[in-house]
Structure formats: C-alpha cells, structure tokens
Amino acid sequence: MKFENHMNILYLHQYFNTPDKPGGTRSYWNILKLIEYGHKVTVICIGNENKKRFERKTIDGINIVSVRVSYSQSMGIMARLKSFLHFMLVSTYLALKEKNIDFVIATSTPLTIGFPALVLKKIKRISYLFEVRDLWPEVPIQMGGLNNKFAIKLARWFERSIYKNASHIVALSPGMEEGVIAAGTPPEKVNMIPNMAKIDKFWARDPNLDLMDELNIARDSFKVIYFGAMGKANAIEYILETAALLQKNEEIEFLFIGSGPGEALIENYLTTSKAKNVRYLGFFNTDKTSEIVNFCDISLVTFSSIPILKTNSPNKLFDSLSAAKPIIVNSNGWTKDLVEKNACGIYVDPETPEDFVKKLLALKEDKESLQMMGINARKLAETVYDKSILCEQFVHTVNQTIAKL
C-alpha cells in the first residue's frame, strides 16, 4: 500500500533494535510499516558494537546511522546523563547533515532525544512527531534520580517545549496520554498507541526440551519468568523477596532474562541465601526469549511502588499476552485494569511479598484458571494489541499528521 505524500523520514531512537538483538523492537516494526506505505526512513541510534565513531548500513530497507556512545543500564546517574548528552549532541549534528528530510519522528526515552527534532524544527522548519514512552522528567524525579530544583525546572521547561513544538504526540499508555495533556498539550494533538504484541514471534507450542536441558532447567518445575529490563524501576528485589519465602517449595522456579542492575541483586541473593529456586539465564534475542517464555507457566510484570510507574507500557506485558501466559502484575494502574478486565492475569500487592506468595500458590493449583487466562491473553493479543494492528494505527497517525502540514 502507498501513501500519496510519501516522505523521507528521519527516525530518532537512541535504543533502536532489530529482532536479532536483545531489546525492544517497536520502532523496527513501525518503520517496516512506514516503508510499506512508500516512505523512506533513516534511523539515527546508538551503535554499541561500532568499530568506527559513525557507521551507516541498510537493514531490511531501513537506512541506519549508528553512533558509538557508551551506555548500559548498570551506569550510575552521572554516567547516564553524560551518555544522554553525548548522544543528544552527536545525533543533532548528524540530523542537520542529513539531506532531503521531509519529516521527523523522535521516540523517547530519554527526553533528550527531542532536542535534535527541536533543532531541525527551528533551523530547517521540518515538522516532527514525538512518541512518549515514559513521562520524563517525572520518572527520574519521582525515583530520586533528578532532585536539583533548577535541573527539575529546566527539564520540565524542556518537556513542555518538545510537546508544544511537535505536530503530534503519540503516548504509549492512558496515563502517559493524561500526563502529556496535563503538561499543557491540547488533547486533539495526542493519541494513545500502546506497546505491541508480536503474535508471530511469541506463541504457545510444544516446549523446547533441548533448550531446557541446555539451560539446566527442571522439566517438571512450575516456572515463573521475568524477562526484560532489570532496572531500579522493575522491582527485582520484590520478586526476590517473594522467592525467598518460597525457598522450601522445590516445585517453583523463578527465571530471569534481561540486563541491568537487577543482575547484581540476583547474584547477591544466590550468594547469600544459597537458594536454588532462582536462575538468571542471560539476555537473548527475540527468538530465544520466545522459546524460554514458552516453556514457563506464568509471566511477571513488576514495577517499584512509585506513582508515576503506573503509567508504564512494558513490552513484556504484550509479549506475555502473545505467548498465551497468565500474567502477574503489581502496579495498581492500567496494567491491573487490563489483566483483570480481560481475565488474563492477577494483581498482587507491591508492598507485600506475602500477598504475592499466597496468590501465586493459589493460582498454581488452579489449572483451569491458568488455562483460561492463557487463552484470554492470546485472544487479546490477536484482536487488540498485535503489531499488525498497532503499526497500522501508528502509520495512520503519521500520515494524518503529514497531511495536515
């Protein structure tokens, strides 16, 4: 399908990933759909594996300009800030050098990704769409990472400037949409498109027993999996506190896939407790993650008990729906409403591991409910949240925005 006004689009995404790499792939699928509609897309992103400072390549029809900038989730606050500013300045330089750009899409986080889009708007009069994946700077403020009064004031001014100058804004959850509007954005300038399920990448099938043996995972255990980012916001300690209460229950295993500071917490738990009910498996691409999630019984979507985190739209939630897994959430926000309304999971108290234990044990014994939750999860992924549906919504939003310019 073609769009009448096909454009050369510059796509700014600091953490852009293709499916063969670990990490989220929302932008990849959205870009493929943009290309299907006749647009040409150039991405500027971090290239951790770059041998040169800048590298340009083409993958699946996507022009990718990657920048060698150091970044990892294990970095401290100052190191992260330095990395963000480094990429912000270099990506702005590269964005200004790109020729024949008609439209810009910038997707957070961090909020600094909006800077090159803002510069192109002011200097070259190129309009942009901004995608809000987290409500920065409110997330680091509430988590204690940003506490200087002047810095907070500056960050909030910067946030409002990005929203004000954007031609349109896409938010990834109802709470994010409300936050953007609360910052002074007209409601008609914002719409919500959540993270996406990938029903062709995560699905229920016979378990890969060879992989289970390779990873030294018991075939007959009841497997609870957490996969994805393992940062301060993800309440890894809470899961480990729950696991500690279940050490004597040899039937239940807690498996972790991902990267971030949570790795050190897991290592410390295993060292100090000598427990055998927790395993950190590593950080894998989509295909291997899908195989591991498939042979697990329940998926966890957890966050620290901080109000702003209730607005999150986590990839793992939608991949779990696609994989037909019952989901346990501990955030009393829209994810709780989603799993309860659609009978595809349960909510546990984020402050009380004992509540987690009680409900997990009850669910483990209720095979009928587990099966129905899995069926409901897959149905929801197929009918509401699959990438085939949401990528169309995203491109429709982009095309409508361009048509109004």
CATH topology of the largest domain: Rossmann fold
Number of helices: 15
Strand portion, in percent? 15-25%
Corresponding CATH architecture of the largest domain: 3-Layer(aba) Sandwich
CATH class of the largest domain: Alpha Beta
Q: Please state the overall shape, judged from the principal axes of the Cα atoms.
A: globular
Give the termini separation. 21 Å
Q: What is the chain-wise order of helices and strands?
A: EHEEEHEHEHHEHEHEHEHEHEHEHEHHH
**For the CA atoms, what is the radius of gyration?**
21 Å
Would you identify the CATH H-level superfamily of the largest domain? Glycogen Phosphorylase B
Polypeptide structure, described:
With 405 residues, this protein is an alpha/beta fold. It folds into two domains: 8-195 and 386-403, Rossmann fold (3-Layer(aba) Sandwich); 209-384, Rossmann fold. Helix content is 43%, strand content 17%. An eight-stranded mixed beta sheet has the order 3-4-2-1-5-6-7-8, sandwiched between helices. Strands 11-10-9-12-13-14 form a six-stranded parallel beta sheet, sandwiched between helices. Strand 5 (103-107), helix 3 (114-124) and strand 6 (128-132) form a beta-alpha-beta unit. Helix 1 (26-36) packs across helix 15, helix 2 runs parallel beside helix 3 (114-124) and helix 11 (315-322) packs across helix 14 (367-385). The protein is globular, with a radius of gyration of 21 Å. The two termini are 21 Å apart. The mean pLDDT is 93.
